[in-house]
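Anyone have tokens for FAD dependent oxidoreductase domain-containing protein? Sequence:
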Amino acid sequence: MIEQQKCKAGIGMTLPQNAPCALVVGLCSHGLAIARSLQRLGVEVHAFEANSAIPGALTNSAVIHYVESIKDDSLVDNLLAFRERIPSSRDIVLFPSNDNNVRVIARHIGRLRGHLSSVGKAASIRSRNFCSRATSKVGAKK
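Reply: yep, here.
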């Protein structure tokens, strides 16, 4: 796994050291949108990508970790290796960006259980902050 450090901090936000981080699998248009949204909310975002030639690989919204594949079983080994690099006091919330990622993760859920937070838990990262910002922006446009 090769790491490329390219991530801006969230605008004016400081999270506790034990705050969860996000791991987006794939920087296609969906993954890129997820990474950008989370980064804007101040979440520390990491991303796995196999193809450095796609436009999403140019983002500064995530720390990009280049891996051999995000579509086969090697993804699971890379997820577990990533878990070892992040302090155990921090949750890692996984955001697969396409059905292939979901299929691989589902096939190996037994190996991953207990190492990564569920996608459903992702909403708790910053949902209240996001909702209050969205509400204030809508109100400001009237």
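The helical segments are 29-40, 74-85, 99-107, 109-112, 123-141.
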